[in-house]
Amino acid sequence: MAVEMLRSKCGCKGIRTCLICECVNGKQLLLDNGQSPWHNFIYDPCLRRAVLSDGGSLSFPFSGIYLWNNFITEEEEKDLITNMDLNSWKDSQSGRRKQDFGPKVNFKKRKVRLGDFCGLPAISRNLVCRMSQEPVLAGFQPVEQCNLEYHPHRGSSIDPHLDDTWLWGERLVTINLLSDTTLTMSLEQGLTELGQGEVRVSVHLPRRSLVVVYGEARHRWKHSIHRHDIHERRVCSTYRELSAEFQFGGEQHTVGSQLLDIALGFKVIRRLPPSLVSFLPGKFQDYLCALCTLKMPIITEKLLLEKCTPKTTKLEQIKTLNLANLCLKCADLPAPLLSRLCCLEQLDLSGNRLQQLPPRLSLPSLRTLDLSNNDMEDVTTLNSLTNLEELRMEDNLYVTVTDNYKLMVLLPKLRVYNGKDISTTANHMRFVNSENLRKRVLAVWETSFSLPNVPTAEKLASVERDFVNKVCYTVKYGPSSLADYTKWRVEMIAKEHLCSLTEPNDDGMDSEELASTKENCSVPSPVKRPHSNSAAVGDITLTPVKKSRASVQDKDSLRTSSRLKTTPQKAEHPRTTTASPTGQNPATQTRIQSKVLLTQKKGLREKSQPLLSPEKKKLTTTACVRQQKAGNEITGKEPVRLQPVHVLQCHSKQDSPDDFSTQLWACAFQPVQYNNGDVKGESRIVATCGGESVCLIDCDTGLVMKKYKVPGEEFFSLAWSTVLMSREGNVGLRPCSILAAGGKRGLVKLLHPRANMAYGEFRASRKPLSVLRFSPCQGNFLFTGSYDKKIVMWDIGGVDSEYNFKVIQLLVLETTSVPLHVCLSPASPDAHLIAACDQGLHSYDIQLNKNMMKRSEDMEITFPVYAKEDKDCNYHTIDGLAFLTDDIVASKSQMQGSIYLWSWSLTQAQRANKKKVVCAVILAELQWSSTDVPYLSLNTCPSKGYVVCGDEGGRLWTYHVTDLLKVKKSDKAIPATEILEWPTPVRKGKGPVEGPCINSVAMDSELKYLVALSDKNMAIVWRRIESS
Q1: Of 126, 135, 605, 1018, whose Cβ has the fewest other Cβ atoms within 10 Å?
Q2: Domain of life, per the record (predicted)?
């Protein structure tokens, strides 16, 4: 019998235990800490006093307990037990099993609903009538009956507790069946006349007796059943009445009246004959009894195909499935059959009677799950749904705040819960909170525990039990409302830590090797050249040089509200309007002297001044002057043809048309969105930054659609992303396209262009920001690189309908020099980050499930050109970096005169024995300008196989390398597919503008447009010419 019990399922949660989880699962019983002694008394029902258990003379009155011996006969007891055993018993806490006949209640949320409650069992009708004849139970009308089964082989017990008083009334009535036991009443604060220490009063409950708990015993004294007081199987039936709030005249008397009508209807439950049930396996008995109570559909392959949309004939092709309102229980969900739904993305299980999900359920593609209006209790059964992103759990009365936080940890990709964006809170619990708890758990281990010298299985199990027990009691963190979650989480962390000690990984690194690597990486940074103010713009004999971003003075701006709402306006008027103190620019010009058109288009104002000389106007109808190189045989396909269509001066200081000194640093196309996104159709909106402004340009019309200006700022970088935004009233979510920009002040500005809203800012560094990049797989994760030689990973979360948001720092990557560009590996964007810095190229491990929240480089990647370095040439400044495919990376060094294409996967494979320095596996070398001007960054268009980089003369070097890997590798640099010459715009009355340095380039996803930014305050838009 004992073996059979131990093989049964355990229903314990949190810190509750029974013999099953203690002996089989290794869970530790949390014993009294022994710090507070107690005084033991025995209840005397004749005297109605509590007397000392050791026979002393001390006693005190003990009211609120009424005992009715032999309330039922032996025959009635037999009938009651037989009736109960024909129904299914449900595993409960602390080794108990239970049967509930009553409404569904969530006491924390104070919510009650009928659920499937249809009355107390019919066999209880006579018992209720009999007990109401006793004066102490006059007028007793129960609305709930709870049957509990205790067994010594399971170590059954119930901890000291007070029953709820919001729903349940004054009297608690219990009938004790099958064996004698002891009800322990306890008062933790003790009694004044007894001194310090808890007081316990033991109330003996004979078999077949009835006990009523009321008055002071009901509201002041906790009651419990200890494990050592269960000697054989014991069953009890507890009846509860409604509180005054639900009775006539109370605030919820309508609900109470409905509950009484149903409860006292005493339903008749259809059952199988005992002679048949006795021959069936236990689980099958439960299943057939459930079918007799309520007929429900059986989940079959035919039913799944009927309930799916769109219709298909194969389970493996189902993407959306609706199983709502079918009265399903966990036993009705066949895990092997459902696990065949390998492509299922959306599942609706709302309106059922599920208390948990079946074990071994595998739905690898599931993204959206609706479990609202169920009876969910065990949320840990959802842990196999690792790719779940959206979950609904409303109207599950037993789901608590603790369960909500458990789900955030168990489901690593969950970002929408009950229709709200929880990304920020979830990531805080997964990483920040977990890291704090992990530190506390490790501190307990280091101070009090160690592995045994001979780590046998028994000794390790003993250490684990003691360690888990210790941390559950000693680790305290966060508010008291999270105490249950904290105990659950530290238990998990403690077991993970022990597992890591007994099964160590090989991610460690020798400290001497690390020190040696750092010493070898100590290379001086190249000197940057300042911008020459004396050089005439039109003097072609002077080579333009770039102003170093490092030369910008770090002037900290005053901290402002995180919800600063500065509104960029459409620029229409030629006059400059003084900016407001908050950085607002109400109006700036769009299509006058600040913008130069290279083509005449209908609908544009005639005031637009073309800057092309007459002899250059042929550029409007033909492709620009270009040099066809011998690169066509490499690609094997006709390259695209581009022509310049717009030149704009939209970042001028004070909107001056004579400003040719403001440097433009970064540009990026707004990503295309569908499914209720902000942008539809082609991506033709490009964001540019430079000086004190950020502009949004329509590449088709050449119009500056929006402009955001912050006086005194100088923007160096920007990035687009998509986050979730609550609809009005915080009902539902929709994707929202946002723009982040940062520069010399170290502040990240968050813009919502569609709403003309700069909705917030946050300080990312005390030094200027050099680069911003969003994660492609987690739109609310932002990486910022700064001049304090750090890359920080932030979670900016979503926004609500009032643009409230919250920012959390997740990770700090320490670099050896200023980061200039960062890229995330397309194959593993949540695992690896590559940083191009002033002193080399470095790779970082950014997995958030690791313990360290501050990390140094994982490895340094070197290049063959490093071998050519001398005192005059330093090739370690990596000022261009981008992925061309999921594996091929394009990068270049200052003064290199070429661009490397190299393999990320092959380079990683070279890292034997966890080497800190590896050489990139070069696939090809692309010929480029031999300039020594730094910070001329490159970009790629993966869909078209293009690499583009500007030079110091305004030219664009383009490389079509789609079929590169099919070509035999050559030691010679591959020439550009074409070089797009500088279009040479003309300044009115001052002649042509010679080619500037091209700081940055960007292409849309289909290479319909290309935008180049210069260091002379000019943005050039190129458009693809379709082949005739």
Answers
A1: 135
A2: Eukaryota
